[in-house]
Amino acid sequence: MTTTTLAQFNAASPQEAAQTLRPCLPIDRWIEEIVSGRPYDDIESVVASAHLAASPLRPDEVDAALAHHPRIGERAAGDSREATLSRSEQSGLSIDEELTAALRAGNAEYEARFDRVFLIRAAGRSTAEILEQLTRRLSNDDETESAEVADQLRQIAILRLQGALSA
């Protein structure tokens, strides 16, 4: 992902600023709220605005954002900025044959249970921890799991935003 300085982000046209934000979380309302809050004094202010704009995320927004996320443990296809970010976020996962099979089975069970891909912030997590969280979340009720998915989307968006902007 191309890094933009905070000064460039503040000075960019609304369309250019939105292009910086879209790979972080492709939700128009979220993007518009952050863009309309410019100029920001520091990156922490942008992050605070981004967190507030993503709290809460509506179910339709979550569904739209999930369309851009591959299954955990699978390589994102394409050359979009979102796919590049996803590959980078999952690049630290060491996945052997046994873990691959367990993730594949867990993903299938999760999708059958919740009718969506399993989403988790992969950055900073081990494959074993991801598999443990996948197993734990399979016992969630629909409401609890929807809240967890929205929280994971927020975490991913904030990490991507911090990576997209520099001081």
UniProtKB/TrEMBL annotation:
Any one Gene Ontology BP term: purine nucleobase metabolic process
Domain Oxo-4-hydroxy-4-carboxy-5-ureidoimidazoline decarboxylase stretches: 10-162
EC category name: lyase
InterPro entries noted in UniProt: OHCU_decarboxylase (IPR018020), OHCU_decarboxylase-2 (IPR017595), OHCU_decarboxylase_sf (IPR036778)
Pathway: Purine metabolism; urate degradation; (S)-allantoin from urate: step 3/3
EC annotation from Swiss-Prot or TrEMBL: 4.1.1.97
Catalyzed reactions: 5-hydroxy-2-oxo-4-ureido-2,5-dihydro-1H-imidazole-5-carboxylate + H(+) = (S)-allantoin + CO2
GO molecular function: 2-oxo-4-hydroxy-4-carboxy-5-ureidoimidazoline decarboxylase activity
Keyword terms of this UniProt record: Decarboxylase, Lyase, Purine metabolism
NCBIfam families, alphabetized: PRK13798.1 (NF010372), UraD_2 (TIGR03180)
PANTHER family: 2-OXO-4-HYDROXY-4-CARBOXY-5-UREIDOIMIDAZOLINE DECARBOXYLASE-RELATED
Listed name of the protein: 2-oxo-4-hydroxy-4-carboxy-5-ureidoimidazoline decarboxylase
Source species: Kineosphaera limosa NBRC 100340
